[in-house]
Amino acid sequence: MTVPEPKSRTEQLDIQQKTDAILSGSRPVDKDYPYIPPDYKVHFPHIGTDRQLFLDNFILDHLDGVRRELCTPQKAPEPLLSFTDLPWERVQFNPGTAGVIHDPDDGLFKMWYWQGLAGEPFNTSQVLCYAESKDALHWEKPLRDDCLPFQDHTTTNIVHPDISQSGLALNHDRSDPDRKYLLVNWPPKTAARRTPGSPRLSSVDASPDGIHWHNISAESPLPHHHEQKIIWDESIQRYIGYSQYSHHQNFLYRKRQIGRQESADFINWSPKEVVLSGDWDANLPPDLEMHDMSVRIIGGLYIGLTSEFMAEPFWQERAGHNWRDQAFSRLGLYTSRDGKRWHRVGGPGPWVDTGLPGDQDYGFICFTPAGELVHNGKMVIPYSGNPQKQSWHTQEPPSPLYPQEKYRLQHDAWHARQALQGDARLKRAVAGLILREDGWAKLVPEYETGQVYTKQFVFEGDALRVNADCSYGYVQVELLDPTFTPYAGFSAELCDPLIGPPDQIWHTVSWQGKTDLRTLWNKPVRIRFTIREASIYAFQFFHSMPE
């Protein structure tokens, strides 16, 4: 073969279809059965030009004098979106992200967020608002006269009049310009008019620009719930939606969990299945519930940011069932290789904890959007920051909270504190986390020098780059054959050390000035990194020359 064997972009789907065909008898039993690998001519894992992270062990084989460290993001010093003097924010500034996208056409970062207009907790009078940014850190709320009016104000950033439990995504199919953006939504006002006695339905809207929306499906067969976070999964050719496994819709399961649905057309969705639950992991405390989860896919690795709802010991009784609704929320980090089986990364503590008293996110960190926002080597993750925990202290709970005496004492203490603070307390906002690009986890020497061995694989592209911090030390790279012998010309001794300033993210690997890797196409390759007082975050093969 004179060209690299390409990685199938639908490998998960290919294997599933192959398995189904073998089990149904319509395809001969594979010679590797009961193992059913992909149909590649070169029988090694194909990574193509996908970025390879070190957050799980998928690509790693052995660490010699090297440890993995999870990276902790910094919190942006100022909110990405905060309360202003806009008239529609004065009622109840309660922003949460429906979707955040880096637009491939104009290069802008775009955010759609919901905003309450009724001052009540049940989200029955929300609108969808729009903001944009050039760097994902500094956002503006552009006021336009073609947006929807609010009372006597004709210039706003309101783009949808009836929104709740929404999920927004960029359409992977760009053949119809009127459907560039897609929105699945529970419009409570519309539902109340159309379906008496049932306040829930799922409608789907589309937009050519994110400002002007039109309905394309009045009601999906299977409804959604609780802030759907939606991505397009190329490997199975489906939209995947993650949302809370209905705490408020099913009295059998009184814990918040993460559910998953999929769809080929964004309109017809599969039934929701539980894919993540605090009940499954004995390393987690029993009061931890899953509020919501956003997902991004990098090189076949699914990375989930889960709002971990830490429920307090106050139970409400409703229709003979107990449930908890008073809590604070933090962020946990989870990974998966198929989007269904999830594992928590790190120890029992949170990936990102709530802030200190008086901080923007002292009470709640939740509602992160799906996908990646990367600009100039930095990754930005918006989230909803609430300075107060979720509670019923501002109004009467829907039923008594038990134990009642303990709740009364907490309720009185809360009101006493509010009386001392006055009206100076913070409002909710969309805050931000900042990480190095691909900076989920890094490999560092345990002392000065260590080595990392990857598994064998087949690649595409003609050059290799490494995401590394080489501001103090250096990294050398060698490409090994199955006998652990460097391929001719690609040994560590011939590798030009990777060095660079702190703000350099990617380093192209060369051996005596040579970067061309085409002689290694369709051969099993293993990488051995030698790290000296440096750290590595990811690697990627890429096309440096015209194909």
Which percent range describes the beta-strand content? 35-45%
Largest beta-sheet characterization? 5 strands, antiparallel
Question: What is the count of helical runs?
Answer: 3
Helical residue percent?
Answer: under 10%
The first-to-last residue Cα distance is 16 Å
Compile the SSE list and pairings.
Elements: H1 11-24, E1 46-48, E2 52-53, E3 60-64, E4 66-70, E5 74-75, E6 92-102, E7 109-116, E8 126-133, E9 139-140, E10 158-163, E11 167-170, E12 181-185, H2 188-194, E13 203-207, E14 214-217, E15 229-233, E16 238-245, E17 257-263, E18 273-276, E19 288-298, E20 301-311, E21 315-318, E22 321-323, E23 327-336, E24 343-344, E25 364-366, E26 374-375, E27 378-386, E28 401-402, H3 404-421, E29 429-436, E30 441-445, E31 449-454, E32 458-459, E33 463-469, E34 474-480, E35 506-508, E36 526-532, E37 535-542
Parallel strand pairs: 1-32
Antiparallel strand pairs: 2-37, 3-31, 4-30, 5-29, 6-7, 7-8, 8-9, 8-10, 11-12, 12-13, 13-14, 15-16, 16-17, 17-18, 19-20, 20-23, 21-22, 21-28, 23-24, 25-27, 26-27, 27-29, 31-36, 33-35, 33-37, 34-36
